[in-house]
Structure formats: C-alpha cells, structure tokens
C-alpha cells in the first residue's frame, strides 16, 4: 500500500489516511434530509459524469453537449422558484447545489447559473404571468436554454446608467440596436434576455429574444479565454432587431428591476467561488497525501500542513457566510449590500485559496490534469464577473457610511 493511503501509528501499524473533505464544520447537516438527497445526487453526477471528461473540454475550449440529456435528469432547473414547473426549494438548497457544481467545475456551475439564475430569474422576477407560463416550464426542463445580455463591449460596471444598446418603440414592436459582450451560453442557446435603454425615457428595459428565428440578431463566439473555457461566451450584435411588445419583460422598466435579478445571482457567485475553493482544497490535499519527497508524503511537512489549514479556513469561512446569506434570502431580507459583501469576500478568498493550492502542487499546479490549475484560472473569472471587487465594495461602502462614492 502506498504512503498516500496509510500513515504510521504509534504501534507501527498503518492507519487509514483521512479522505479529503471540504465540509469541515459539517454544514451539510443543516440541510433537510430531502435537500441532502438532492445535493448528494448532484455530487454523484458531477463526480461520475463530469469529472472524468471536463479537463479535456476545458483544454479544448468546448462545451460538453453530450452531458445535456443526463444533466436535465437532475431536476434542478428553476431551483428556488415556485410554480411554473420549476424545481422550487429553498435558496439554501440552490446555493448548496451551485457549490457542488463548482466543486467539480466552475464552468458547469456558470452554465447553470446563467440559465437558471439570470435568464429564468429575469422572467420569474420581471416577467408577466403570461410570459412566466410560456417560458419557465420549458426552461426548467432545459428544453429551452437561456442567456442574459447586460454587459457591453464598452460598458461593464457602468451598466446602471450607461447602456449603449437602445430600444425604440414602434407601434406594437420595439427596435433594438447595439452589442452585448461576455454573454455566457449565447453562441448556442435558444433565448436571450437583452437589457436596453429606452430612448424615450432613458430607462433600462428587458426583452426576450428568440435567438434562432429573429432577423438582425447574431452572435460571435469569443475565443482565446484563459478562464471558464467550457462556458461558451459570445458577442451579440443587434441590428434593427424587432421585438414584439409581448416579449418585453412587463416588470422590467428600470435598472432597479434589473438589479433585483443581479442581487440574487450575485450572491450565487459567492456560492460558486466557495465551491471552487472546496474543489481546490480537496484536490490539493489528495495530491499532498500521494506525493512523496525525501521518503515521505509531503502532507507530513509542517509548511504544507500550514498552507492546507489556511486553505480550509478560507473554505469554511465562506461556507458559513454563504449559509447565513441564504437564510436571509429565504426570509426575504437579502439586500444588495449583503449580496455585494458575499460576492466580494468569497471571490477574493477564492483567489487566495486556489493560489495556495497551485503552489503546493508545484509544476503540476499548472496542468489541467490535476484540476487545481483549472480552479486557479477559473477563480480569476469569478472574481471579475457579476460586478468587480471594487464595485461591490462601493455598494457596501454606501450602505455603511450613507455616502455614495460612485463616479
């Protein structure tokens, strides 16, 4: 038996090495039995279906479409939403599922978050009853995949007041012109939620666009990314795109309505970045248990154990923070600044945690084969998307000081 599987006891007999476990405080036990069953189902799927193939797809900058039929069977479309064929359940369960997805691969978590969180969330929160009845059931079944178009080539953090994509009313239709960039799922999905500035009142409004049948709507896949390579991001171009009034989100009439969606999904990024840390910690611990130098596992070295303990402390702190945030959301108390704090803190800690993991793997830390290099790269994307670290801190700063410091 290798040194990875055993350690010497005082009697000289080998003893089992602890199995890597990123849930040091046993927080999963706070879920109901039914919720734990869902989380277990997702973990089993990610371990058996995704982990064996994901590094190749990550390296090839490709999405594993072969997984979609089995992914649908998980029944997690519309987690946290009630009715309309959605999976329902608590926000705590939604968060744990996102964490489990990211624990194996952040790209699969992002695919799920864009579709179920941003696209479905826009319709669920800002759509009319008719729109919810029409779109949410097939989206919950993953028969229709969605994306969320807010960011633009020249507008990122300034979307609240600076969208250049315009919408002009023309009878029973709207005419949209502009571009969207970094839109996950857009090169292949079925519908896009597009946010545009109404030229009449200068307010942000949301629109549902059927990608494959709408003239003037085109998408170019973005290439050469160094992070979240499995997610297919696109640049959308809208040229005199005509959208019927029936496809305008009836409750999306200002950026305040857009922000309701972002509030929910922003803190989901906190769950995702926590999941990345779990995956990186567990992969790193396993590696140090198996890697021998100077005749013994490097996991037995003091400096290695110090870094592993710091990694685990970050993971556990983020898990506890996110759990409390989910409780607030389930109680209807979640605020923008609370979501901002979670996103900022967890993504910053994620960068720190995965960097320690990459360091402990030495040269192997830059190979996708060992998973940690993939987590290391993907953490960079999560740190920036859904609002940068600095923008989150300005949201927090305004809440705690009473003074807005935005430009």
Number of strands: 11
Radius of gyration, whole Å: 22 Å
Total count of domains: 3
Span of the ends, CA to CA: 62 Å
User: What percent strand?
Assistant: 15-25%
- How much helical structure, as a percent, in the residues? 40-55%
Average pLDDT value? 92
The H/E string reads EEHHHHHEHEEEEEEHEEHHHH
Taken from the alpha-carbon principal axes, the silhouette is: globular
Number of helices: 11
**CATH architectural arrangement of the largest domain:** Up-down Bundle
CATH class of the largest domain: Mainly Alpha
Overview of the molecule:
There is one protein chain. Helices cover 49% and strands 15% of the residues. It contains eleven helices and eleven strands. Strands 3, 4, 5, 6, 7, 8 and 9 form a seven-stranded mixed beta sheet that branches. The chain has a two-stranded antiparallel ribbon with strand order 1-2. Strands 10-11 form a two-stranded antiparallel sheet. Strand 1 (6-8) and strand 2 (14-16) form a beta hairpin. The protein starts with 5 loop residues before the first strand and ends in a 6-residue tail after the last helix. Its cofactor is FAD.
Describe what is shown at a glance.
The chain is built from 11 helices and 11 strands. The protein folds into 3 domains: 27-140, Acyl-CoA dehydrogenase/oxidase, N-terminal domain (Butyryl-Coa Dehydrogenase, subunit A, domain 1, Orthogonal Bundle); 146-254, Butyryl-CoA Dehydrogenase, subunit A, domain 2 (Beta Barrel), CATH 2.40.110.10; 256-401, Butyryl-CoA Dehydrogenase, subunit A, domain 3 (Up-down Bundle), CATH 1.20.140.
